[in-house]
Amino acid sequence: MADPPTRPPEPQPVLPGPKSAPPDARTRGPVTRVPMIDSFFALRREVPGWQAILWGVLCIALCGGLWWYLTLGEKEERILSPGILPSPEDTFASFHSLWFDRALTLNTLASLQRVVLGFGLAALVGVPLGVLCGCFRWLGSFFAPLTVMGRNIPIAALIPLTFSIFGIGEFQKVMFIFIACVAFVITDTATAIGDVSSRYVDTAYTLGAGRRQIILKVLVPLAMPSVFNSLRLLFGLAFGYIMLAETIQMAGVSGGLGYIINMSQRRGFQDHILLVIILIPLVALAIDWILYLIQRELFPYQYGGYGVLHQAVRGLLHLWEDFTSLFRRRVDFPSDLAK
Question: SS3 breakdown of the chain: % helix, strand, coil, rounded to 5?
Fold first, then answer.
């Protein structure tokens, strides 16, 4: 018997596969970047020293070019008239009269002397008081109203107050700088003391140190780098504050840079005002650079100096401790004999 014919297998329906999605921007591969542009806009990228100098010079050149453009041409054709902004040529040509006729050197030294005396007094009072406020919170709370008011009061408002209390002489200018800066010194010093980690204090207590030793040998040395850095920055602000106090000059006394600006404004010497405005940042920058070099030598472990001043200060402190210990022994010697 013959086998029945076999039927061919029925074709299976072809199911449609998943449609291919259009290429997304995230799957197209790496985006082409420009390395130079990326390096310029990299967040918190360190800039080499030569690049920092180059960018600074470029900024000065752009400002000088804008100044030259605004005062270009004849006096009647300029964008800004000479009464508003003199040209660079007219400004620097008047430097001879500012130097000799207006006694620029003596007035600059007079302003510096007032700032050094006033700010030195603020540091002499503010640093020890700030240390105590940082060590004892109740004392910081006691002085908080005065420091908050001193840090937030408008500086110009202190001028008539100091005139009425201290007169118009040199003492007024020194006290003006003192009052304007002492609250900032106290606050920054107390903050630096408070930022010292508690583990140093706990370790000192464990080793048997007393409260006075912890303050003088633990808290103050660890906080001094921050305190000195704050003083360096505040000195620049004090140098700007003195211009406000030098509005009145006594006979026979150098008026200072502020007096030169005030008198030049009254007499219409805009070129002298511009020269003094250029001179003030240069002097402040030179002083800040000197203070930074001192800061590096005092705290080499933090700022990378050679530590010459650091070793000198340590030697003086050791000599002082030996002297005081010898004096204490001599004072205690008669009491030992009496026993």
Answer: 70, 0, 30
pLDDT tens, residue by residue, 98-153: 888 888 888 889 889 999 999 999 999 999 999 999 999 999 999 999 999 988 98
Length of the chain: 339
Predicted confidence (pLDDT) per residue in 190-211, tens digit: 999 999 998 998 888 888 888 8
Cα separation, 197 vs 282, whole angstroms: 38
Pairwise CA distance, residues 243 & 326, whole Å: 49
The first and second tokens of residue 258, run together, are 């502020």
Cα gap 21→27, rounded to integer Å: 11
Does the CA dihedral 49-54-57-58 come out positive or negative?
negative
Residue pair 295/287 in contact (Cβ under 8 Å)? The answer is no
Report pLDDT digits (tens) over 280-289: 888 888 998 9
14: left (phi over 0), alpha (psi -120 to 50) or beta: beta
CA–CA distance, 51 with 56 (Å, rounded to integer): 8
CA distance 290 to 280: 16
The residue whose two tokens read 């700010």 is: 119
Let me know: does 185 contact 226? Beta carbons within 8 Å.
no
To the nearest 10°, the Cα dihedral for 285, 291, 297, 299? -110
Other Cβ atoms within 10 Å of 70 Cβ, number: 13
Among the listed residues 319, 321, 295, the one whose alpha carbon sits nearest the alpha carbon of residue 308: 295
Whether the pTM exceeds 0.70: the reply is yes
Burial classification of residue 263, based on how many CB atoms lie within 10 Å of its CB (0-12 exposed, 13-18 middle, 19 or more buried):
middle
Residue 3 pLDDT grade (very low, low, confident, very high; cuts 50, 70, 90): low
Level-2 CATH architecture, domain 93-327: Orthogonal Bundle (1.10)
**Amino acid at the residue 181:** C
